[in-house]
From TrEMBL:
Pfam families: Polyketide_cyc2. One of its GO terms (biological process) is abscisic acid-activated signaling pathway. This is Uncharacterized protein. The keyword Cytoplasm applies.
Amino acid sequence: MESMYIARHHNQKVGANQCSSALTKRIKAPADLVWSLVRRFDQPQKYKPFVSRCTMNGDLKIGSLREVNVKSGLPATTSTERLELLDDDEHILGIRIIDGDHRLRNYSSIITVHPDIVDGKTGTLVIESFVVDVPEGNTQEETCYFVQALINCNLKSLADVSERMANNA
């Protein structure tokens, strides 16, 4: 199933000096609950551990911009991001970083949320893919490793928050 979802939803074009990857996480919580967190483009700090604050003007719709403040310890303090895709029926969120004091140029990501069975119970498969420019002085491997580490932290936190919410429901 994973490969089918990746082929269908995570087929971003990758340029010559870019790297790309798709990461997966199985979560022991219903897909609707997980989606309720993921879809909140205006509140990424609900599950993303490196986000300290987020401000967004206007409605939650395609083209909306958010300004994200990053916690200390990372090589950035702010990121300006645009909502590229929000599909509540298919559970797809797409974002693009358009500015910030970091090295993630031309970064875009797609995250999809799919119902799944995890350990014999109702659960969720989350897939997040990205494409980003390789900064001067770095290799594709280094760039992919860094972004994958960030996404894996976010996905682990999403699982922790979702599973806690599911257990308290």
